[in-house]
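Note to self: keep these together.
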Amino acid sequence: MTVSELAVKCLGFSGACLTYGLAETEAGFRQQLRSGDMALKSFLLTPVLLVLTAISCLALVRLIGGDPVMPWFGVLLAAAPLPGFVSVLMLAKPSGRTSRHLPGLLFVTALGVALAVLSGPASGWGPAILASAAALAFLWYDFIYSDLGRTPSVTLRQGGPLPEFDVQNLDGAPVSSRDFLGGRTLILFYRGNWCPLCMAQVNELAARYRALSEMGVDVVLISPQPQTQTEALALRFDVDMKFLTDPDGQAAQSLQIAAPDGTPSGLTLFGYAKDTVLPTVIAIDAEGTIIYLDQTDNYRVRPEPDLFLEIFRGRAAASGDQPVPAPVGSLQEGSA
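Structure:
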């Protein structure tokens, strides 16, 4: 058997192991990912990212220093995808959603493990161990951390009334959910400015604000984050979206969408509370009936923003109102 054939077989075996491990991980852990495990996941995320970044730097140093290329390049391929992916999300905020299980990054990670393991007999098993540990960390993020372990709220029900709850505006004045009645409203509960997917989702709504507004839709954004953080976010947008806060997460608790200990470790140093909210989208009509509800079970999987336009246009048509087409260029207006 040639070296290339062995490499292909090793890559195929690594991919098969990863696929089997992912399926078993998802099936075995999904029922256990409840609030009791949220604290552990939140605590581990920052250390995991730091360790993978350190392993990536070590691999680069070894490659630059003239160590064998194949094993250390494998380590780099296995360790770099997760911190690189999170960095892109934090800095670029390219979209409000990703694929559920990131198959491209899984392939790169599997390739890295295969290269490191294949080089083991000749170069030692240190790189193979590091690459395997990095792959396990990626699997943990992809299948355990990203899964919210969510039990759908029984308080929120599509077709049912919007429950009553109280939040605050930027002046600290109370705002009741009853104030949303009488007009169509799109409500987004988001985790905070620290969440890149949440910020990308807010950007998408701002970009479609004019189209929503011309259909008579108010956009309401609610977060349990400190009021100063919400004020800073509101200043980034030149649109009349309503930025509200949920002090102590009382509204989230009453709606059964709270995420105790859901804030990643270290962010409490920047004023964020350790408890947050599960990303949730609620659309209501003028009577307060929930016409659309999204309770995602994966923080990286969010509804497409144009879906909201379709929902409200469809509701307007069903009620006999004249549906308003989205104006040309409206998708680019209102973004930060």
